[in-house]
Amino acid sequence: MKIIVAFILLFSSVYSQTDIQTDSIKTNVRAGVTLSTSITTKEVPLNRTTCLTVKLVWEGNIDYVEINEIEEPVLSNLEIMGSSASNKTMDTEGGIKSVKEISYILQPVSLGMGYIETVGVSYDDKLSGKTYHLKTERIGIEAVSAVPEEGEIHISWLWIIGGVIVIAVIGSGIYYFFRKKTVSEKEEDIQIIEEKYLDELKEMVDLKSGDKNESFTILSKIFRRYLSEKYDISAMETTTDELLHLLASAELDEGLLRKSEKLFSKADIVKFSGKNATQAELDEAYTTVETILETYLAREKKGEEESKKF
Question: Which tens digits make up the pLDDT trace of 81-102?
């Protein structure tokens, strides 16, 4: 009888160890999933495009992973002109590799900085029953002046006549040039208002701060001070409705007025409702202010360059 009991205990121990080992093997069989983005160029003329490529790669048995739909990129000062997608599976030395690529053709909307905020995707690990989320980092693209189209005549009679006129007035222009030189040098020492507030924005607003509400409040105050100085209005102590009325009276650009209304409305919600701002809301507000400052800075510099020519 003792022999039979011992045999049963020994069999149970072996069976239990086998189960544990098998479960451990299943847990470690996971597919490696990576999400990446790349662009063809970071400086794009207004009449040209750049290509954003979103690549999703996963290795291992594809039956263990279910990829959900890849989110469309969140864009600022850029628009999608077209897209394409491809899927392929290949056998490598390390096993099966699956690749999904989506390409977006992007074109700038206006001069200044444009941003590809994030691209996200989620996937289900069938072995663990968990869902994982992947997101890419922000990419900046600078929109520059349009370039001549192919076949466009670069040298025309207008340019020739203009060149002759320039040569003819060089003599009389020398005196004017030296007289204005001192004034121009002093003007260069004065910092453009948008440069000042861009520096302050980058120095004082921490996008990675744990207190998103505080960062949102600082961002809103910086933008209000900029509007006060730029348009000579009282923007610091006024309500959002009063501020928007002042901006409209100052004949503010319609696009800037809409962006300002959205930003200050969100700031009021964060300030008075007690609701915590999300990372996405802070990123969007920061991008809005940054894009406005960079766009107007580009216009100011372009105006200065054109004025110096005369």
Answer: 998 988 887 777 767 788 888 8
Pick from 294, 268, 260, 267: nearest CA to 281: 267
The domain segmentation of the chain, as residue ranges, is: 31-144, 193-309
Burial track 293-308 (b if 16+ CB lie within 10 A, e otherwise): bbbbbbeeeeeeeeee
Alpha carbon distances (Å) from 85 to 52, 88, 101, 134, 271: 12, 10, 6, 19, 43
Give domain 31-144's CATH architecture. Sandwich (2.60)
For the cut 70, the answer to whether the pLDDT of residue 25 exceeds it is no
Q: What is the pLDDT of residue 45?
A: 93
pTM confidence score: 0.41
DSSP string, 165-227: HHHHHHHHHHHHHHHHHHHHHHHHHSPPHHHHHHHHHHHH--TT-S-HHHHHHHHHHHHHHHH
For the domain covering 193-309, report its CATH number: 1.20.120
- Number of helices followed by number of strands (H, E) in the chain: 7, 11
Nearest CA-CA partner of 204 in 227, 223, 189: 223
Tell me which residue of 233, 290, 292, 289 sits closest to 266, measured CA to CA: 289
Encode pLDDT of 51-83 as tens digits: 999 888 877 666 677 777 788 888 989 989 998
- Taking the CA atoms of residue 166, residue 171, residue 175 and residue 177 in that order, the dihedral angle to the nearest 10 degrees is 30
Q: How confident is the model at residue 180 (pLDDT cuts 50, 70, 90)?
A: low
Q: Are strands 43-45 and 75-76 parallel, antiparallel or unpaired?
A: unpaired
- Rounded CA-CA distance 228/222 in Å is 10
Task: Give the long-range contacts of residues 273-278, CB within 8 A, separation 24 or more.
Answer: 276/212, 276/213, 277/212, 277/213, 277/215, 277/216, 278/212
Amino acid at 213: N
